[in-house]
Amino acid sequence: MSKFILTIAVILGLSAGHINLIRRKWLLNVLGLAIQYICIFIVFPKTESFIPALIKLIVGLMATLIIYLTILSTGAIKHERISLKLSAGEVFRGLSGLFLVLLILIATPWLQSEVFPQSSKPALILSMGLMLLGLLQLGSKAEPFYIVIGLLTFLSGFELLYGSLEFSNLLEALFAMVNLLLAIAGAYFIVKNLEMEAS
User: Fold this and answer.
1) Domain coordinates of the chain in residue numbers?
2) Rg of the Cα trace of the chain?
3) 94-126 pLDDT per residue, tens
4) What phi-psi label fits residue 183: left (phi over 0), alpha (psi between -120 and 50 degrees) or beta?
5) What is the pTM of this model?
């Protein structure tokens, strides 16, 4: 694949992860998660065939669809208003995420030469960036929806990193199962949390 397309996919994937970290709008977060999985499909190494990358895309979009249908069925999307004004917490999370992405960009040449020589530069930047953004999201919010988004973001980055180093059919099946189970468990906790807020 051309370097330009890979660069655009890395920028879009990191931007989607960054938007998921900053904004707390459910529909926007689900769209950002779907964009992340599409960008991972583009960047994922296709050494033997494109089937493993396609499986990641399908599983990721299925997990995103599970979460989207859950929040759609609860009616939580109807209560949202989209505003362009950022709160202090959103500015802090945005600057923290930007710092982490810059740290990854600076450390990538060393990481690629010393630690992960088999990984391509776009795969390494996107995977490490998503893992760090996912971890930051896990530590910044306690609501089940955002915890699930953070876990799926971290796991997708880890899958991309592992897939660029070594491919295993058994591990890919395990990752797919974990993704779907996380989405199902997240859907359950989202509904439970909304029911507790309503009562």
Assistant:
1) 3-198
2) 17
3) 999 999 999 999 999 998 888 888 888 999 999
4) alpha
5) 0.91
